[in-house]
Every structure is written in C-alpha cells, then in structure tokens.
Amino acid sequence: MHSNHLLLEEPIRMASILEPSKASFSASACLKAGMSVARFDFSWGDAEYHQETLENLKAAIKTTKKLCAVMLDTVGPELQVVNRSEKAITLKADDKVILTPDKGQEATSEVLPINFAGLSKAVKNGDTIFIGQYLFTGSETTSVWLEVDEVKSKNVVCVIKNSATLAGSLFTLHASQIHIDLPTLSDKDKQVISTWGVQNKIDFISLSYTRHAEDVREARQLLSKLGDLSQTQIFAKIENVEGLTHFDEILQEADGIILSRGNLGIDLPPEKVFLFQKSAVYKCNMAGKPAVVTRVVDSMTDNLRPTRAEATDVANAVLDGCDAILLGAETLRGLYPIETISIVGKICAEAEKVSNQDQYFKKTVKYVGEPMSHLESIASSAVRAAIKVKASVIICFTSSGRAARLIAKYRPTMPVLSVVIPRLKTNQLKWSFTGAFEARQSLIVRGLFPLLADPRHAADSTNATNESVLKVALDHGKASGVIKSHDRIVVCQKVGDASVVKIIELED
C-alpha cells in the first residue's frame, strides 16, 4: 500500500462520447489503477459536459467501492487564443504573426485572436510569449515561442521563433514574467463555483494563477457563503514568478500548493526549476500542507512508456517530499491513461521504499522546535512510538481530519489509517452528519488512508463505542493486507479533553 496519490484530469476525457457502461468502466479502470482525486478543468467544456463526466465517476466509485475526491480547477486570468474553426494552424520560424483582441477574426497563420484586450499595454518589444495546446508539452512542434516585435494600437506583432503546428479549438498563451491585470477569480469562476461546485459539494478548488495571499482570502470568503463549500479546501496553483515572489504568504493562507511546472518552466530559466521545486516542497512539508507536482510524464500522452528522465523526475518528486502527482494531458487526451496512472504509481512506490523517513522525522521535529503545540506534540509522539515499536500501522481517530494530517506531516514509515468520526450538526431545520468531506480530503495527503466511521458512532460517543470503531478499523487494515497477526498498532485518539497515544499488540 504505497502512499503517493495521483490526481488526474477528468477520469477519461472520452467519457462523454462513450456509452454509459463503457464510460463508467473507464473511470473504474482509473480508480483501480490508483486515481484518488479527479480534477475538473473549467478552461475546457461547459458545466453540462463536466457533469456527465462526474456522473460516470460516481458510478465507478459505487462499483469499485474506492473513494475519490473532486477538484474544481478555475480558469483564472488565463490568456487564450480562440480557434473557432478548429483547423490546424501552421506557423513558420522567422515569419510574423499578429495577436489581436478582436475575437471576431478567424485564427490563421497570420492573425491569432486572443481573449485579453490589455496585452498591448502589458508587453514591450523583445518580450517573450509562448502559445501551445495544454500549455507546453515541451514539444517544439506543438508549441510556439514568439518575440514581441512591435505594438500597434491594441495589436501585438510578433516574430515566430520556431516552426510549429497548433491543433485544437483553444491554445493557452503565456507572456513570460509579465503582470496580467485580470482578477484571479473571474466572474465565470465565481458562477461555476456557486452553481456546479455547490451542486456537487466539491472537495477542493485549484485556484489557478494564484499571485498573492489576498487571492486565497477572496476565494475563502466566497466559499464561506456557500453552505457546504465552507469546508472545501483551497489549493493555490503557483504558475508564475509573481506567485513565487509571494509564496510564503500564499502558503500561510492556502490548504495546499500545486506547483504548475508547465507555466513555471516558462517563467523561470530551466536551470532554476529544480531549485524552486525543492524549496517549495520543503516549505509545504514543514507547514504540514500537501504539495502537488504537475507535468511529470508528458511523453506518455503519445507513448506507452515514460522516458528515463521522466521516471527519474517522478521518483525525485517523491524523495523531495511531494504528496501527490497531478497528471494532465496524459489522462485528458492521452492514448494510454490507465498505463500512465499505473506506471507513475509504481515509480512512486519504489521511491517510497528508499526515502529516508527517519531523517525526515528528525528534521521536522527540529524545524517545529519547542515548546510544541499540544497537537504537534501528540502527533510527533505517535509517530516516534510507531517507529520505536516497529508498528505496522498508525490508527488515528479524528473528526476534522487535522490530527491525522499532523501525524502524516511527520512522514511515518507505516500507513496512517485516518478514521473520520462523523459529527452531528443542525441548522435548526434538519440534522446532518459531517465527515465525508474530511475523509475525501485525506486522499491528497501522502501516507493517509481515510475510513469513514458509521454515523451511529458520533464524535462525542463513549469509550465503548470507540472500541467498536477500532475493531472496524483493524478489520479494514487486515482486509487490505497492512495488518497481520501479532503486529503492533499505534492508536491516537481523544478521550474526553485528553489526547491519548497507545500501543496495541494483536494476538491473532
């Protein structure tokens, strides 16, 4: 049971054009291969299209009995070239092309209409602009690099630096190291979150192009007014130098970070990308917040095997401390989505086997320092006890999920079963149980395996009830093969006002 999680673009993009049975089979195959979070990218398709994909996923969750969280990816201030005819556009090196805000124009090799009227004010001669489907596969035949030659009124004339063919209805445009004066949460994003997001009780928001801590605060304020979505976690997507500059403040506000290496690889010199990744992941680890890395096996969009460099890159992301791998083009429009998930999962598992968790534990304890908070102390003690007695698993009873996430922060060598105890809540009109959000949100944290307890075992229940929940957790551990006879188990739970860490030795 390895503990790196795979986030994916929509679980098999073809779902909407397949028969329902085949569509749910495809999503089932993704879940069985290792998908734990499905990302719905609203840069593409409408709400109805995404709903159909989500219904396929829900059907697959029922048939496979595998938990999966839902992430809504906002569009944000994304610059796009609109190609309504969808004809392939061939651009030749040393020719010129005009970027125009006149969206009524047809996209051709001479003129590309864009969705942002302010580009001519934002750029100057010599600036670099990149255009590509699914922003930069790294292939110089499907992405184009432009240099601004002159600004003519609202149009930007560019010299084409490499020959390429752009195919599809939409291409992303990225102006390197240029501030784009558009809101991080667009009106369209707010509308989608308030309708599709509320209807589907989304677990995560991927906040595209987060540039300041205020962006996260604004998104949080929106969610707080949307009922159940007040529990939705916000993952800040760092895509440019502006986001990097304010990384520390953004990390304080966000629930997790997505390092969008496709865009960052353009904004940063290539030789600096690895350094930023290591530094950002380390900061996330020390803050106990999940770090997600993107763009790892681009070549598998068209090939059955990753390159050697890509396989090494995935392993290094795990060794650096990342919590999840986000697959994009490989599962969005790739030819081998299931094989991609499976191979990336195997690489993660191998890297987990050799990661030095003992050193990591010491480093984290040292970083947190003294005096520790009550919860940090309990979490680190549970991990220390589990390491000392060579426990096969740590079982943590939690209602908010916070205690389990803190245990995972100390990267124990064994899996953490996060037993989410439902809480009873009321709005004076009806009673309901919380817990499903917290269980699904655990799926993005490295090493955490959630289990939702029976609602009859509410969080303020007696010790006797806790014992019956523990039995359910132990049975689950045995069934999944992580707990065997005579194993030692470390249990972390609250008893009244006190937090208790205890060691159990199984007899059979």
Describe the 3D structure.
Belongs to the pyruvate kinase family. The chain has 17 helices and 24 strands. The chain has 508 residues and is an alpha/beta fold. The protein has three domains: 243 residues, TIM Barrel, CATH 3.20.20; 97 residues, PK beta-barrel domain-like (M1 Pyruvate Kinase, Domain 3); 149 residues, Pyruvate Kinase, Chain: A, domain 1 (3-Layer(aba) Sandwich), CATH 3.40.1380.20. The strands form five sheets. The chain has an eight-stranded parallel beta barrel with strand order 1-2-3-13-14-15-16-17, surrounded by seven helices. Strands 4-12-8-9-10-6-7 form a seven-stranded mixed β-sheet. A five-stranded mixed β-sheet has the order 22-19-18-23-24, sandwiched between helices. Strand 2, helix 2 and strand 3 form a beta-alpha-beta unit.
